[in-house]
Write a structure and sequence with these properties.
It contains five helices and nine strands. By secondary structure, it is an alpha+beta fold. The strands form three sheets. Strands 1-7-3-4 form a four-stranded antiparallel beta sheet, with no helix packed on it. Strands 2-6-5 form a three-stranded antiparallel beta sheet, with no helix packed on it. A two-stranded antiparallel ribbon has the order 8-9. The mean pLDDT is about 85.
């Protein structure tokens, strides 16, 4: 079966849905926890069933709600020290965002360019830092990769417009008119 446009865009920008597994420990009052990912597409929640600290049945499925921002809410407030688990699927961009990129970009390549531009804007929040123990972290290098991808995609979009007789062709053909 051929890939639809959204799947082609996701493949092109390597935004395939990923599975994640997070464990939380309840404090006896909270039933909602923030996941480290957004654009949660589906998931299941589990509670660790024990009696007096001794495992009874291990993990048991329980009611949960996930929202796209990455908030998981368990159906009941778990008791203090209870272990909770969320197994879910997430992606960088939501289906709505991919649809928007496709509408604005007009093609798989154009949508990919739109996605890279969104990532470039997001990368402005990136940082470089060093810890007291001498370890360093530099996420600013991601911007270099995004610039390269942006340039390559922009060139591909422009080549496609010239081949299709876009407005770029007009300027090239002006030398033939005197």
């Amino acid at each position: 079966m051929p890939l639809d446009t959204a799947q082609q865009v996701r493949l092109r920008i390597q935004d395939q849905p990923l599975r994640a597994d997070e464990t939380f420990f309840a404090d006896g009052s909270a039933s909602a926890f923030q996941l480290p990912h957004r654009n949660v597409q589906s998931g299941t929640g589990f509670v660790f069933v024990s009696a007096g600290g001794v495992p009874v049945t291990g993990w048991s499925a329980t009611g949960v709600d996930f929202d796209a921002s990455g908030l998981v809410t368990f159906s009941a407030v778990p008791s203090a020290e209870s272990a909770l688990r969320a197994v879910y699927v997430h992606s960088t961009f939501s289906d709505d965002e991919i649809g928007h990129f496709t509408a604005v970009g007009g093609s798989v390549v154009g949508a990919s360019l739109e996605a890279v531009q969104a990532l470039m804007f997001d990368s402005l929040k990136r940082a470089r830092w060093g810890a007291a123990d001498g370890s360093q972290y530099d996420d600013t290098k991601a911007m270099d990769q995004l610039r390269y991808m942006h340039s390559a995609l922009k060139e591909e979009v422009n080549e496609g417009e010239v081949a299709a007789g876009g407005f770029q062709n007009w300027s090239l053909e002006q030398e033939n008119f005197n």
